[in-house]
Amino acid sequence: MDATTACAGMPTLPLHTTRLALRPVEPEDAERISVLAGDWEVARFTTNIPHPLSASEATDFIAGARTGMAEETALVLVLIEKRTREPIGLVGIEWDRERNHGELGYWLGRAHWSQGFASEAVTALLGFIFETVGLQGIVALACVDNKASRRVLEKLGFTWTGCAEYPAPARERVLTMDRFELSRADWQAASQRIRPVILVAAAALVDPEGRILVAQRPEGKHMAGLWEFPGGKVNPDETPEAALIRELREELDIDIMESCLAPLTFASHGYEDFHLLMPVFACRVWQGTPRPMEGQALQWVRPNRLGDLPMPPADVPLVALIRDLL
Fold it and tell me: For the chain, what is the radius of gyration of the CA atoms?
């Protein structure tokens, strides 16, 4: 099976999200998998990943995964970050044909944690599994001290059903795991529910050299480390322009006149628990020198280099638009 071939009876892979391509695991992925999953901070939350993980062990795992895919009892996909074209983790489901239920598993390389990649990948896989494979339910396990994995599952609609001890062959002991379940009916209901719309205003600040200012989300915030266009949430009593003027004063210590804000484009993106609507304004004139007031890093970037930066899913589609419009 190659990267563009589906399991028998399944449509063509890979699956695509805003930032990822999910394709079937291949033998040449062994070395990269051994590096990413061989990290103890990754392996320690799993039951079956040896530590350290050799390339030959990764090769054996891939062979087993491909056998399961050929027999249509499993689907194991590599997460390829579109920006770098590099593998960053795995997501997969094994299922029981008689019970028509499966078990979800996933992991990410440590450098890619807390950036929304797990939710993005699992969301795509769930849609594929429920709509195409037709499973009626999925179980997922998470170590009780793996809070990040718990949050991913809860945001995606999984219900906690209790915790118990499970054998962990790679750890040579048992692990206490939280057990989560998601039915096809609950997934369909969740996918159809109306999420609250959050209105955010952002700015493409352009300096005399034509560079654009971007800010890096600081540690402690959701999606820390990602770069975004400065701005913030619009309060109920504000216009997007007024909110942006306020946010840029608070975040960057600069003053902007509303007449200096030119509507440029907008982003509309559905996250797990809300829908983001973000008008983006171009601005070339302001008073003061932008400086980080909230612990964020700043950098001026040429429009044609914006795509080199890791960004939140909502910001990614803006890059080409802003590059072409400015």
Answer: 22
What pLDDT, in 10s, does the model give residues 267-283? 999 988 899 999 999 99
Nearest to 132 by CA among 6, 19, 26: 6
Strands across the sheet with 275-283, in order? 231-233, 197-205, 275-283, 262-270
Q: Which residues contact 196 (CB under 8 A, 6 or more apart)?
A: 274, 275
pLDDT for res 118: 96
Cis ω for the linkage preceding 167 (within 30 of 0): no
Beta-carbon contacts of residue 14 (< 8 Å; ≥ 6 apart): 3, 4, 21, 22, 23, 24, 77, 80
How do residues 50-75 score in pLDDT, each as one tens digit? 999 999 999 999 999 999 999 999 99
Number of helical (H) and strand (E) elements in the chain, helices listed first: 8, 15
Which residues, at least 6 apart from 88, have a Cβ–Cβ distance to it below 8 Å?
36, 79, 80, 81, 108, 109, 111, 112, 117
- CB 108, CB 118: distance < 8 Å: yes
Q: What percent of the chain has pLDDT over 70?
A: 96
Angstrom distance (rounded) from CA 68 to CA 64: 6
The predicted pLDDT at position 12 comes to 66
pTM of the model: 0.88
